[in-house]
Design brief:
The protein is α+β, with helices and mostly antiparallel strands. It has helices at 40-62, 68-93, 103-117, 120-129, 138-160, 181-186, 193-198, and strands at residues 3-6, 9-14, 17-21, 27-32, 168-172, 190-192, 221-224. It folds into 2 domains: 1-32, no CATH class; 33-224, no CATH class. It has 7 helices and 7 strands. The strands form 2 sheets. It has a 4-stranded antiparallel beta sheet, with no helix packed on it. It has a 3-stranded antiparallel beta sheet with strand order 6-5-7. The radius of gyration is 19 Å and the shape is globular. The chain binds zinc ion.
Length: 238
Amino acid sequence: MNLRKINNFYAVKESNRVFYLNENKEFLFYYDLPNKIVTLQENKSNIANYEFILQKIANDFWSGKITQTVFVLKMFRFVRKGFEGAFELGMKSIGILPDEILIADRLQFQNWLTDELLYVMPLSNYILNNQQKNFGKWSLIKNRMKLWGKRYLDILNKSRTLGGFDIKLQWNLGATEKSCKSCLKLNGKVKRASYWAENNIYPQNPPNDKLECGGWNCDCELLPTDKKLTSGRMPNLP
Ligand SMILES: [Zn+2]
């Protein structure tokens, strides 16, 4: 029996089923590994929609339609909603339903969310100083909001490395990827979810010291796969 420890839990895989045990090795619950994989295509509309709404909220503040307070509140609400959606979609794509998500994984998610929300106030000050009435350029803010939009994919990718400790994930090069050598080196590599997480190798995750591009504009994806694991060591990164 191949028992693995993850945080305060044990997990064991038997054919297509993963059993979770508590610290006393008593059975908690199980989940079945996915037979359906959520593809990049299906994710694309969610990612585009997340960025679209962020752009809208920022534009309303830039043009003076809403106040700074309303902007901050809207951002808090919407980023939370978006992150939760990305987290649950990531989990679903590796076969874990919302009510099966481990508390430890929810806590990890809360950390990611809290980190993101810390940047909302500085962002609001930046937009305030660059509002339309002060002749600030929308293009500057728009570019910044694009980076915020990328975080949806970031959370989606990271979520898959949590509960799916035993799942194989393949690095798929993003559509707009041009010059990042690190992403090219990683493209096609298949490793277990736990491997990506333990080695802190993720797409996005800015500022990402494993990627030459810093991960800011990366749209690579870690996708569940049943291809063979890549043997040997990882290339030198970044
Ligand atoms: Zn990339």
